[in-house]
Design brief:
The chain is of the alpha+beta class and about 170 residues long. Helix content is about 25%, strand content about 10%.
Length: about 170
């Protein structure tokens, strides 16, 4: 491996058991199937290519399918949701995909007094990813001591930004 230059390198993408669209890389550097295929076509034939997965899990089977219109009529109070919800397939209000709730998930919603979700888990995950700061650093100044720092909070954001020392002194 040292002679061929492979030593210390990442595994080639072709060895991944997952398609590019199934990996965390796609969350940080999103590409469409066409873009991945275009990049593969441009790569040298000796370079390992990226995989893509077209697998779509089958729709869950259920005793009852709850449409988005029906979801609006369900009580928002989790204590009023019957245990039968575990045998229902819920329809996502955004994508239209069916999803089910697991027993432990329903127990968690009840414990935390949260309503049942109206969106497919993939859509909820995408919504959470949109809330994260971009993977970029900006030069800022500590709001307390004036020390130059780098942060993922852009200068346009209203949050008070502290350097590590000021933060630790404030928290402790």
């Amino acid at each position: 491996m040292q002679k061929t230059g492979e030593w210390g390198e990442f595994f080639p993408p072709a060895l991944s058991p997952f398609g590019y669209n199934e990996t965390v890389a796609n969350e940080y550097f999103p590409l469409t199937k066409e873009e991945v295929m275009e990049r593969n076509a441009k790569m040298d034939s000796s370079v390992q290519k990226f995989n893509w997965s077209d697998y779509e899990p089958p729709a869950p089977t259920a005793q009852k399918i709850i449409t988005p219109e029906m979801m609006k009529n369900l009580p928002s109070d989790i204590s009023k949701i019957p245990d039968d919800v575990l045998s229902w397939a819920l329809t996502c209000e955004i994508s239209g995909k069916l999803f089910t709730l697991q027993k432990s998930e329903l127990e968690f919603y009840r414990k935390m007094n949260l309503p049942i979700p109206h969106r497919h888990p993939d859509i909820r995950h995408a919504d959470r990813m949109k809330l994260r700061n971009p993977r970029k650093l900006w030069n800022r100044i500590c709001s307390q001591c004036g020390t130059p720092i780098q942060t993922t909070y852009s200068p346009e954001r209203p949050e008070k930004i502290l350097c590590e020392n000021c933060y630790v002194n404030t928290v402790v």
